[in-house]
Amino acid sequence: MQNPLKVGVIGCGWFAQAVHLPILRRLPGVELAALAEPEPSRRQAASRCIPSAVAYADYRDLLKMRDLDAVIVSVPTALHAEVAIAAMQEGKPVYLEKPIAASLEEADKVVSVWKRSGVVGMVGFNYRFNALFQAAQMQLQARKLGSLVGMRSVFSTPMRSMPAWKQARSTGGGVLLDLASHHIDLVRFLFQQEVRTVSADIESCCTEHDIAVLHLRLAGGLRIQSYFSLCAVDEDRVEIYGQAGKLTVDRYRSLDVEIVDAGGTSSRFRRMTQKLRPFMNAPYLLKKLRSPWHEPSYREALSRFISVVRGCEKTSPDLLDGYRSLEVIEAAEESARTGRVVDVKSSLLSGSLSTERKQDGGEGP
Question: Is the dihedral of CA 79, 84, 90, 93 positive or negative?
Fold first, then answer.
């Protein structure tokens, strides 16, 4: 029997208390050994949740623990790069909540340190572990929709009270970092292609950059239209169009993948492979009801991280996936500033990432 993997959580705000701590304390083979949080009331609340964990005010003290096997980083976005780099320099495998940094300049440093350190670096794109999106990817691979035509997505939330750092882009706020980063990675996951061009409009309604409309074109030519808002309603929906039909996943309401054929006949896709069958319908509903925020993929993502640290699985999504998402976000911001379509092109040079962009004066994708 393996010894428990000792894990530390850096950042004990509302998300860590609602998601990370409850999941980690129940994961088999995991010992939640340490917490780090500078704000006293949050640190005390986390300690009440995990009384056996050593609690620190400074994350650097946590990283000095020699017997700590891995860390979860859930601090404000502006601190993601700093904390992740410090952890990897101490040789600690890192699960870093998205986005991996507030800017590509910082993300370059994160990825460079990660590659030099050789430790596990995983990013919290939990949508990849959602059974519905996994099933959708299988349907795309099986060409159930025929030749693809395009995709449309919406991800929005009602206006809510939020910390000051989330209200300004300079401190890591805005709908692109908060919501769009998930859908950008989801596009890469579903279609296994990179985003090549970006056109965007960004508005500030209640807080800075809290509404965005993105038009993406993938390497294979497929077009994606997405709407994101922090001041609308709760909705998280993806529709993929093909010549043979349409596939829909509503993350909040769907219990399976819905496919409508080109003639308009709706049918529920129920014959999943044996691997996915337990996740669908009633069993999937039960998992949703038992999961933090009714989202089972949080547990699946953290479980994968533990398995990767133990050497049982390949790291996915890794920090480079986080970089790619942030790359598209900065291209969208450039497009919104200039009113132009922005090409996204990345290359790995001498162990560090560099990004080249050129502006295209043509029509949007």
Answer: positive
